[in-house]
Amino acid sequence: MPAERLLPTTEAEDLLALVREIAREELAPHAAEAEEHERFPRDKFRLLGKTGLLGLPYPERFGGGEQPYEVYLQALEEIASAWMSVGVGLSVHVMSSYGLATFGTEAQQEKWLPDMLAGDLLGGYALSESHAGSDAGALSTRAVKQDDHYVVNGTKAWITHAGVADFYTLMARTADTGGRGISCFLAPGRADGLSAAAPERKMGLTGSVTAQLRFEDVRVDADRLVGAEGDGLKIALSALDSGRLGIAACGVGLAQAALDEAVAYAKQRTQFGRAIIDFQGLEFLLADMAAAVESARATYLAAARRRDRGLPFTRQAAIAKLVCTDTAMKVTTDAVQVLGGAGYTRDFPVERYMREAKVLQIFEGTNQIQRLVIGRDLRR
């Protein structure tokens, strides 16, 4: 039961048809096994790169698809509905490319962006630290200028693709001036002194690698500084506005997958001589799930259209992330309830969907932080 979409162009319609084909044939059949065995699907990201999906919102002259966020996010939703780890990884890669694509010089973009968008390079976003999650301005990883390079020392935490990424958009301290002393770097993923800890043992998204990232006297060439020294927190927060829309779309994709599974099960499962979807108590539950999914989708699309028009969208991105990820948690939980005992087993995917939904309320800023962002914007 694919989502009904109102797309702005026939090109976008063709693109979404291609995405659905890839999701159906190349992603969904492999998701359950890879998640069970905690295998990172690097080959799937190469496939997304070859088909042009890793760079959808970026300029064509660098190999991107030059698609509006309204279209990119709906493609991302389709990917996430088939395999959440791949959807989140795609969102992280696009966010990791944002700093260079938006704040980099023309020379930097020409040098690195084509490989990043083609899928030859997979990205990671290195902002958070164990003591600096919601309070990003408190990070302590330090970059010290020495001649034509910087020497980086510190530890990043909760980094998606840690140890498997080919580059990291790294936020590091270059001055002791609080948030104004943070700078942004495009750090190579195979540098001497850079290592990843053992992957975190997570509740869900087990096919996606998350780990600490350690910098021990890592040399980063000075031409890999993105923007000016001190611009890092500004770049990071700007990237997070767009990244939150990516996670919102992933949340809706996961909720849609759970709804589809619940409806299919309710149509074929019989009790008292009738399909259980015919019982009003269950029918109303499914109706509420469908209403929540469509409302959440409309929320992220409204924010995306503001972004595409160049309007401020920080508050709308926070609202979308909050609404869509809370919807994912509620709808996946309700899907388990529809399936009853079967939903609590690994024979059906809804138990995995429920486990995967929880982290959406946490990363790219917890949903409590989203409420702070919304409230502060209202006060202004």
From TrEMBL:
<dbReference type="Pfam" id="PF02771">
    <property type="entry name" value="Acyl-CoA_dh_N"/>
</dbReference>
<keyword id="KW-0285">Flavoprotein</keyword>
<dbReference type="InterPro" id="IPR046373">
    <property type="entry name" value="Acyl-CoA_Oxase/DH_mid-dom_sf"/>
</dbReference>
<dbReference type="Pfam" id="PF02770">
    <property type="entry name" value="Acyl-CoA_dh_M"/>
</dbReference>
<dbReference type="InterPro" id="IPR037069">
    <property type="entry name" value="AcylCoA_DH/ox_N_sf"/>
</dbReference>
<dbReference type="InterPro" id="IPR009100">
    <property type="entry name" value="AcylCoA_DH/oxidase_NM_dom_sf"/>
</dbReference>
<dbReference type="InterPro" id="IPR009075">
    <property type="entry name" value="AcylCo_DH/oxidase_C"/>
</dbReference>
<dbReference type="InterPro" id="IPR036250">
    <property type="entry name" value="AcylCo_DH-like_C"/>
</dbReference>
<dbReference type="InterPro" id="IPR006091">
    <property type="entry name" value="Acyl-CoA_Oxase/DH_mid-dom"/>
</dbReference>
<feature type="domain" description="Acyl-CoA dehydrogenase/oxidase C-terminal">
    <location>
        <begin position="230"/>
        <end position="377"/>
    </location>
</feature>
<keyword id="KW-0274">FAD</keyword>
<comment type="similarity">
    <text>Belongs to the acyl-CoA dehydrogenase family.</text>
</comment>
<dbReference type="Pfam" id="PF00441">
    <property type="entry name" value="Acyl-CoA_dh_1"/>
</dbReference>
<feature type="domain" description="Acyl-CoA dehydrogenase/oxidase N-terminal">
    <location>
        <begin position="9"/>
        <end position="120"/>
    </location>
</feature>
<keyword id="KW-0560">Oxidoreductase</keyword>
<dbReference type="InterPro" id="IPR013786">
    <property type="entry name" value="AcylCoA_DH/ox_N"/>
</dbReference>
<feature type="domain" description="Acyl-CoA oxidase/dehydrogenase middle">
    <location>
        <begin position="125"/>
        <end position="218"/>
    </location>
</feature>
<dbReference type="InterPro" id="IPR006089">
    <property type="entry name" value="Acyl-CoA_DH_CS"/>
</dbReference>
<protein>
    <submittedName>
        <fullName>Acyl-CoA dehydrogenase family protein</fullName>
    </submittedName>
</protein>
